[in-house]
Amino acid sequence: MKQPRSSDELGRDLGEVGYLADEGLATIAYLALAMQRPLLLEGEPGTGKTALAEALARAYGLPLIRLQCYEGIDATQALYDWDFPRQILHLRTVEATADRSQVDAESVEQSLFDERFLLARPILRALREAPAVLLVDEIDRADDEFEAFLLEVLSTNQVTIPELGTVRATVPPIVVLTSNRTRELHDALKRRCLYHWIEHPALAREIEIVRTRMPEVSQRLAEQVAGVVSDLRSRGDLLKPPGVAETLDWTAALVRLECDDLDLETAAATIGAVCKYREDIDRVRDALSSMLA
Ligand SMILES: Nc1ncnc2c1ncn2[C@@H]1O[C@H](COP(=O)(O)OP(=O)(O)OP(=O)(O)O)[C@@H](O)[C@H]1O
Ligand SMILES: [Mg+2]
């Protein structure tokens, strides 16, 4: 893998695959790569946490291995599991074909824990396939035990499968963890990571993001959409302030309607691409005219 030599270079590399990082994010991501430390990203929904891991993988031509966390996730879903139905099938085949007097129970049992019956889950794959980008998405949804397990793997970059032995990454994977902060993560995990809080982008950057992701959109429309979204965020009374995802969605909706100059009527008719709560829509409708003035 090509190693960026500076945060500027990393910023350019990400820019080439359509991800525009601000200086703070480019610096911390550069350090995470250079120091081989996991990167923990927190921030409002839709601010590009998941997209950063995707962009890193694309920029450096690495496989992206994604572990989506959820309540109740455990090591068998993250690390490995045995393919039970295939093991049973194997056992039946041995039973049906082997000469009973010659069957050695111990070796049959051993043959059940063979590589071909192993189901490698994301973390094991990331250790084996490294260099790779391992995205541990929405870690705050998993519980404490899972976090402790993850910490162990991240500290050693190896796992032991009792029946097979130890798997160690030849190169540590680039690890990106994201959290929406539905709960605080433990200090021990944070200590291992470099941390960055992703803010909503500044107006100029958001216009640039729209123009980069949708080159067919006019500068004027990009400015109007990003301007209204930025005003909506600064109101401070919305249940869910729109993220970059909503800005891009809204722009795509307007392109669909062949709208090249955002007027009040079209903005009101398409506001459902930006606000997804009835209360927010009610609040926003009345204010749109001043935002578009
Ligand atoms: N800096 C950026 N440059 C380019 N595209 C961006 C940027 N930030 C966000 N996006 C785009 O915005 C959309 C939402 O980003 P993403 O899904 O990564 O957000 P998230 O922070 O992971 O949100 P959630 O917390 O809801 O999972 C994606 O289409 C992503 O590509
Ligand atoms: Mg995400």
CATH superfamily of the largest domain: P-loop containing nucleotide triphosphate hydrolases
The overall number of domains is: 3
Specify the number of helices.
14
**Overall pLDDT confidence:** 93
- CATH class of the largest domain, named Alpha Beta
Low-confidence stretches: none
Sketch the topology as an H/E string, one letter per element: HHEHEHEHHEHEHEEEHEHHHHH
What is the strand tally? Answer: 9
Identify the strand order in the major beta sheet: 2-5-8-1-9
- Strand % is 5-15%
Percent of residues in helices comes to 40-55%
Terminal Cα separation, in Å?
A: 49 Å
> Rg, please?
24 Å
Largest sheet: 5 strands, parallel
So, CATH architecture of the largest domain?
A: 3-Layer(aba) Sandwich
Bound molecules: adenosine-5'-triphosphate, magnesium ion
Global shape: elongated
Explain the overall architecture.
With 293 residues, the protein is of the alpha/beta class. It folds into 3 domains: 7-79 and 121-198, Rossmann fold (3-Layer(aba) Sandwich), CATH 3.40.50; 82-117, no CATH class; 203-286. It contains 14 helices and 9 strands. A 5-stranded parallel β-sheet has the order 2-5-8-1-9, sandwiched between helices. β6 and β7 (165-168) form a beta hairpin. The chain is elongated. The structure holds adenosine-5'-triphosphate (ATP) and magnesium ion.
The gist of it:
By secondary structure, the chain is of the alpha/beta class. The chain has 14 helices and nine strands. It is elongated and about 90 Å long.
